[in-house]
Amino acid sequence: MSWLLRCINAPRAPVVVALLVLLGALALRIADPSAVSRLRDFAFDSYQRIQPRLYNPETPVRIVDIDEAALQEYGQWPWPRTIVARLVDKLTEKGAVVVAFDAVFAEPDRSSISRMVRDLVAFTDPETVQKLAAAVQDNDKVLADAMAQSRVVTGFGFDVKGTGKPPRTFHGVAFAGDQPSQFLPQQGGTVKSIDILEAAAKGNGSVNTDVDSIVIRRVPMMFRVVGYEGLFPALSIEALRVAQEASTYLIKSSGASGEISFGEKTGIVAIRTGNLEVPTDARGRLIVYDTGHKEERFISARAVLKDEVPAEKIEGNVFFVGTSAIGLKDLRNTPVQDAVPGVELHAQLAEQMLEQKFLSRPDYADGAEFLYLAAIGLLLVVLLPRLSAGKMSVVATVFIGVGLAVPWFAYSKHQLLFDPIYPPVTFAAIYVVGTALAFMRTERERAEIRGAFGMYLSPDLVEQLARNPSLLQLGGELREITVMFTDVRGFTTISEQFDPHGLTRFMNRFLTPMTDLILGLKGTIDKYMGDAIMAFWNAPLPVERHAARACDAALAMQARLAELNQEWKAEAEAEGRKHIPVNIGVGLNTGPASVGNFGSTQRFTYSCLGDDVNLASRLEGQCKTYGVGIIIGRKTREEVEDYATLEIDLITVKGKTEPERVFALLGDAAVAQTDAFRALQGCQDEFLRLYRSGAFAEALEMIRTCQAAAETAGWRQTYYEMMRGRLDALIDDSPVDWKGVYVAKDK
């Protein structure tokens, strides 16, 4: 599996896999399994549904339909042969050119009176029976006489259980080129009409269509039968032979004059009878060029028998006699329509031959499609790594479009059939597979970049950069942000107890949870400075209540540090070394700053610059001076008025000329609502009032009360001890111009 993943991630994997897809498609096209040919047939069927052959009512081909009305009038099929004989007579009298039966009269007529009287032998004397039989003409003889006066084509079928003599042939067969028998479909047995009817007919044709398919797309024009010499025609072409009074079929195959086959036996090309030449496929099959079911073709047998059809609708037409009655189950599926009467297929084939309208799949089609597939497929493979995704999609779309448009043009304008599915599907597969692998590799590289940048930037920034790489340029914007600086107190002393590897592990254990808390509250890590962290909120993406989120992060960091100290203490005791508690100072300030990419064109970082940023750093430095964990500036305090904050001083920090009110952050809004905090806040306010008014002695006395309130509120600090020392110094040396502002001596 790892080998496969390495192969997929290789730089040339898209090209290699796309080439393998092409080679596989070419191999499959050479094999041409049934699934591929069915797909091709489905496409050709779709063409005919979109643009079927136009029905021409002037074409002299009609159907005498043994429909529901005829069955209701004359009873169930098969009818007595006398009725069939009357039907033939009616059509002949009114000028029918040929009457072809899409039926097989395989047994003598059981309803014939001459046969029925023979059954009376058991009940009367034989002489009487013989006289009755001689007095009544046999029904089959009646039909044979009618056929003899007309041009009738009887039907025969193929059945592996068929026995007896083969169907009678009324034609000769000549051929040009290779012997056609080797290409024609071979049948195992036949079922034919009785001899008396065959002898009276002028032709004999197969009523079978395509026995290999549910949808009739191709109908053989010639058959051969195992064990018998000669070739047997289809009903449609035999009817037209009889109509022309032709005596011969000429079959043109590969190797004939004018046919280029390069020495290969490629099959049958065409079948000619009389003046009609019918192009076929290699197996002598005519492709059905379907119009769909047309009622105009049909004349009810009832109407013919009752003389309700004008002579002009019969005269000069070739008639196929068959049934559309559902109960007789002679229904077929065609490319355009399902459940079409089988006799209509024979009629449509005859129409095609008379109109000389044929669909053709040229013998060079397979080779042309293979070469086109190989050439364009290889071009796609070559272009895949050289073009951008957008350009490649355009090229692939063009090739796929050409693969769809050219076959449609060939069909609609020239009735030629070329595969419109296999080449475009192959091109699409090459494009999709190659593009998908390239995309996977790009995503993997992007993930690696995200992982690398995620070590330094917030996930939001990494995602934004991944979506919009144009942000990776020098420059920034002015935004209001909340900035955080943190630092470990007494880090030098702490680091002395570790070797370099131990110190690295210690810092990772400290920085990882602190970073997680900052990022989890939508903060952006600006940088790590040894044991210090710089972060900010509300950039690069807007963060609602960013000052509150920064305060929540600072409080969570202090709480998590308390847990870490417990873990480190237990580890130190287990190792027999002294535990040095780790404390951090956090400075927060809110204000406008320039945020963006700063540095050089070779290397830059996403950071923030501004006066309020510097102030945040100074506030973090004062955490050590004032002995508190978190100090926030005035602007931050204004954004979180509901949080538990105490004003601790008015100071002028290094680099500033104006004093800044600074506040200690003790807790969130819930802490601010406690009685202990409110009591502490009251004490602190009174302490600051005395301190700033110059009542240093009274302020010193107030410290004891404040310390007690701080203990009750759970505020851990050394702030009041520091202020006690400052007040002692002020009492000893009170400044003349005291304004309550302390000037910081350290950063």
TrEMBL record:
Keywords of the record, alphabetical order, are: Membrane, Transmembrane, Transmembrane helix
Sequence ranges assigned to domain Guanylate cyclase in this UniProt record: 482-620
Q: What is the lineage of its organism?
A: Bacteria, Pseudomonadati, Pseudomonadota, Alphaproteobacteria, Hyphomicrobiales
Q: Where is the chain membrane-spanning?
A: 370-387, 394-410, 422-440
Protein name as annotated: Adenylate/guanylate cyclase domain-containing protein
Magnesium listed as a keyword: no
Alphabetical list of InterPro entries matching this protein: A/G_cyclase (IPR001054), Adenylyl/Guanylyl_Cyclase_3/4 (IPR050697), CHASE2 (IPR007890), Nucleotide_cyclase (IPR029787)
The record's annotation in Gene3D superfamilies points to: Nucleotide cyclase
Which species is this UniProt entry from?
Answer: Reyranella aquatilis
| This protein's record includes keyword Glycoprotein | no
